[in-house]
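Researcher: Structure for this, please.
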Amino acid sequence: MSITTTAIERSKTVLIAATIAAAVALLALFATNGAAAPSKDTANKQGETPTIVLVHGAWADASGWSGVIDRLQKDGYSVLAPANPLRSLSGDAAYIAGVLAQIQGPIVLVGHSYGGAVIRNAAADNQNVRALVYVDAFIPDIGENILQLAGQGSLIQQSIELRGYPPFGPNDAEAYLKPSMYRETFANDLPPKQAAVMAAEQRPIALAAGAAPTEATAWKTIPSWAVVGLDDHTITPAQQLFMARRAGSTPTEIHASHVSMISHPDAVTRVIETAANNTTH
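Model: Predicted structure, token format:
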């Protein structure tokens, strides 16, 4: 029995050592060369057809893009929908910028709600980003934060509830939408049961992220489009139009709530594909 046990323990030791060595080698390769480059065929394909990167905002997650992703993939696009950390504007933008840096070929970068502020910072130094699309989004200028831009009549202020999170310092707070007001504020054109599930699954945003000033404005050099929800109670339609026009975006107005990518995926997909087509001409 002791011989068998010793043999098993030796095998475990060898396996662990081999695993660690492989992990170290992989990390060294990543540090030297960055992320693995796409194959030549993939790179060429991406050079012709842009990759679509979809960035969600607060009180949602990447699953909100499911209907749009399905349509884009059916039309032959490569799509990524990374998880936006929602911890700080600079940190979130840096994370998304890191995702973009590993994509070869042109990119259409799409942001919903707070994601609009993230993409304008993330795209600032990436020449592969050929188009920006804002979906019911904040489009702040330098020095502005999203808390300033919801517009008169927005329900955000009365809908938010703050909760602390570790390590529970004076600024360690994150904002949720009250479940009782989630549908009216965020998803008023979705069925009540669907909105109730979304309220339970919502990802909060750190208060510091909402209060942080924008440091870059990619829309000043990159063409942009905007989907404006005319029934949006989170960012008022008037405010969305003001920000879109200020950014020089081409607006498309639809009768939708703040989550038009869920309630009207066809319309949102058409705008994204219009932006994508612009990158190939």
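Researcher: Any notable elements?
Model: Strands lie at 51-55, 79-80, 107-112, 129-135, 160-164, 173-177, 205-206, 224-229, 250-254. DSSP finds twelve helices and nine strands in the chain.
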